[in-house]
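step: validate -> pass
step: tokenize input -> pass
step: predict -> running
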Amino acid sequence: MHDLAFIVAGFLVGMVIGLTGVGGGSLMTPILIFVFGVKPYLAVGTDLLFAGFTKLGGTVRLARARLVNWRMVAHLSAGSIPAAVLTLWYLREMGPASAAAQSFMTNALGVALLLTAAAMLYKVIRGNKSGHAVGLNQPPADAALPRHWSLPLLFGALIGSLVTLTSVGAGAIGVMVLMVLYPLLPLPRIVAADIAYAVPLTLVAGLGHASLGSVDWALLAKLLIGSLPGIWIGSRLMQHTPERVVRSLLSMLLTYAGLKLIAM
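step: predict -> pass
step: emit ->
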């Protein structure tokens, strides 16, 4: 029965990802900790590879549609991947299963969930009022240029550390950061860049956690068995579901989970 429960959890999270685009880390990691009692370090490490494999399929589809700006992906990765490696080194020094590391990761996860909830709520309130175009037309030539060349490196490093510690941050938080850094870029291209740069980051961080013994491979397989059809169904239900209602409910759920983690 436990195996079936993990598959069902993967399916439900995959369906929400397909419906709303919310990153799996903000949902799967709290579910693994609170519902299944998985240790935080194992939940984070396993979920990082879960997110990496899940978003890899999305990146291939977006790349075929020519929506991914690879220069943006390279700039963000230049900050996020070295930061992920340094964070992994820090976790190795602490010992990922140590009490200090568990407390640090739990508190960081709580903060990341609160930030994700705030980013989701902001998007619900703002809706399409932002200046970003929603079409897929070719943006102006300077739209993919950041406000300053150093900002993608800096914010990439911050997100890289956050994702490595918590498996959360490359989704809603990443999109909000990109909207600030690239204000002229259409939203679909921002989302495409966010998904694409999350793949190398989550795979590097996930494989690093695997080297620390922080990945449950059998659990990962069960989650993926459920999530892949879930994403397929969710993406097809997207046009028939009130996204603002779903995102509002998720924002409240993530706020509750974040506060509970901080209070642990």
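step: describe -> The mean pLDDT is 82.
step: cleanup -> pass
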